[in-house]
Design a protein that fits this description.
The structure is a single chain. The chain has helices at residues 12-23, 58-71, 134-137, 153-162, 182-190, 284-308, 310-317; strands at residues 3-8, 29-31, 75-77, 81-85, 91-95, 100-108, 112-114, 130-131, 145-149, 168-172, 194-197, 200-207, 211-218, 224-227, 231-234, 238-240, 270-272. By secondary structure, the chain is of the alpha/beta class. The chain folds into 2 domains: 3-114 and 238-317, FAD/NAD(P)-binding domain, CATH 3.50.50.60; 130-234, FAD/NAD(P)-binding domain, CATH 3.50.50.60. The longest helix is centred in the last third of the chain and has 25 residues, at 284-308. The protein is elongated, with a radius of gyration of 21 Å. The structure holds flavin-adenine dinucleotide. Residues 8-14, 31-35, 38-40, 42-43, 46, 48, 80-81, 109-112, 154, 157-158, 241, 244, 274-275, 282-285, 287 line the site of flavin-adenine dinucleotide.
């Protein structure tokens, strides 16, 4: 039996698509991936998602989204899609746990993953002082000094969160100005626990079992220095999780999927929603909006499929 629609990914895009598809009576199946909730579940402070005037944590927000979609009949599988075939219809999907699915339509909501620094020590010390998630690991750094690498919203937001635990948070940024929203910049500058290290990049993360220092280089002067810290949190951007679709779908050189204004990929019945294609806005509410759009387009696609058959839709898309 073919599923009407399989949604790949459980970030705001996937969860919203599941809600809309469920309310359209499509009985959607969502394959959540290894990180339920996606990137927003990595933060403790979501202050800009409408409807929560006092803010909400990322894990709470995504759990509520899941409950809302389940209430209308969405089904969830905790698994990771490892192979897809969009060359024949119905489409087929395989997962790491060995499941095989057939689907009449697919919404790709695989989002993005944090970029690594790519310096010596990073891989070996990940989980031993190197982290990409302050919400998950901040507590371990109570009474210690930590560094945050980056100058955007995430770096400042998570740096501010870390001041709850750490004695000092050094924000290491490769430039001398920040990209973050003014309100976050203001809060960070007013926080006595935050120290900015400008024009600097990390060359090495040092430690013996756990992190104890960063080797920094000033990109203006070339001067090298050591920053003793017990933890380093990396927020230098993301790359889209789209390797799985290489050779079957069009994407730009950074890997963001190509879609039209209705989120159709070049294969009729395959849609993309959220940061798998959106390289501009990168906000939870935007991804949620794309999830809604993709589910509405799926509904229309399935109605057309029933009346016209897949070959006619394929010909129509050429
Ligand atoms: C630290 C941090 C703080 C942030 N704070 C805010 C904030 O305050 N406000 C805001 O609006 N935005 C914030 N953002 C941005 C926001 O999290 C993202 O814009 C949003 O999560 C993108 O949603 P998405 O659904 O497109 O993708 P993602 O959230 O990236 O979700 C992708 C999902 O796909 C799954 N997946 C990937 N590959 C597969 C596969 N092969 N099979 C199955 N599943 C797969 C993943 O496990 C994940 O569940 C923050 C981001 C970070 C990192």
């Amino acid at each position: 039996m073919s599923e009407n629609v399989i949604i790949i990914g459980s970030g705001p895009a996937g969860l919203t698509a599941a809600l809309y598809a469920a309310r359209a009576n499509l009985n959607p199946l969502l394959v959540s991936g290894n990180e339920f909730g996606g990137q927003i579940a990595l933060t403790n402070e979501v202050e800009n998602y409408p409807g929560f005037p006092d803010g909400i944590t990322g894990p709470e927000l995504t759990e509520l989204m899941k409950q809302q979609a389940e209430k209308f009949g969405a089904r969830f599988e905790t698994d990771h899609v490892s192979k897809v075939n969009f060359q024949a219809h119905p489409f087929t999907l395989e997962t790491e746990n060995g499941a095989h699915y057939e689907a009449k339509s697919v919404i790709i909501a695989t989002g993005a993953s944090p970029r690594r620094l790519g310096v010596p020590g990073e891989m070996e010390l990940t989980g031993r002082g190197v982290s990409y998630c302050a919400t998950c690991d901040g507590f371990f750094f109570r009474g210690k000094e930590v560094a945050v690498i980056g100058g955007g919203d995430s770096a400042l937001q998570e740096g501010l969160f870390l001041t709850r635990f750490a004695t000092q948070v050094h924000i290491v940024h490769r430039r001398d100005e920040l990209r973050a929203q003014p309100i976050l910049q203001e809060r960070a500058r007013e926080n006595s626990k935050i120290n900015f290290v400008w024009n600097s990049v990390v060359e090495d993360i040092r430690g013996n079992g756990t992190v104890n220092a960063l080797d920094l280089k000033n990109v203006r002067t070339g001067n090298k220095s050591e920053l003793p810290v017990s933890g380093v949190f990396v927020y230098i951007g993301h790359y889209p999780n789209t390797d799985l679709f290489k050779g079957q779908l069009d994407m730009n050189e950074e890997g963001y999927l190509s879609v039209d204004e209705r989120l159709h990929t070049k294969i009729p019945g395959v849609f993309a929603a959220g940061e798998a294609h959106d390289h501009i806005f990168k906000q939870a509410i935007v991804s949620a909006g794309f999830g809604c759009m993709a589910a509405m387009e799926v509904e229309k696609f399935l109605a057309d499929l029933e009346h016209q058959g897949y070959a006619a839709l394929q010909n129509g898309s050429r």
